[in-house]
Amino acid sequence: MLDNHHKNLATFIHLSTFSRFIIPFGNFIGPIVLWAANKEKSEFIDQHGKQAINFQISVLLYAIIIGTISVPFFIFKLFNGMDVINFHGFNNFHINVGEPSPLLYIGGGLGALAIIAFIVELALIVRASLSARDGQVYKYPLTINFLK
């Protein structure tokens, strides 16, 4: 029997991921605490807790991959043409931006992809919360199931 209390707990498990805007790693701490304290009460709460935690771990993994790929493109462009040997202090120091490099376009594209992924993540969390409120099981797309 699925009652309103179980639906509310499952909803709050998903919504607790927004605590990352207040508490560092709150997107992990909130769902883990709520799920661990209530997973024996209902299979519904257990499923939603695992989904929320798996999704947050997957998002972190994807962000690390995108960051690892994009950061070198910006570093190579920043230090391109900088003469380190003939550096004469800060009096005449300037950085010549010059012509945009294809590396900068690739890095910028990956940065734009990260921003779009962040917006999609927020929308999916809200959608999962609404599904939990309605008593439906929600599976996040592109989620790696670390907890089964």
TrEMBL record:
Q: What is its main location?
A: membrane
* Pfam hit, one: MamF_MmsF
Which keywords annotate this record? Answer: Membrane, Transmembrane, Transmembrane helix
Keyword check for Transmembrane helix: yes
Q: Does the keyword Nucleotidyltransferase apply?
A: no
Q: Which domain of life is it from?
A: Bacteria
Q: How does it sit in the membrane?
A: Multi-pass membrane protein
Give its localization.
Answer: Membrane
- Please give the start and end residues of each transmembrane region: 12-38, 59-79, 103-126
What name appears for this protein in its UniProt entry? DUF4870 domain-containing protein
Organism equals Winogradskyella echinorum
Source organism lineage? Bacteria, Pseudomonadati, Bacteroidota, Flavobacteriia, Flavobacteriales
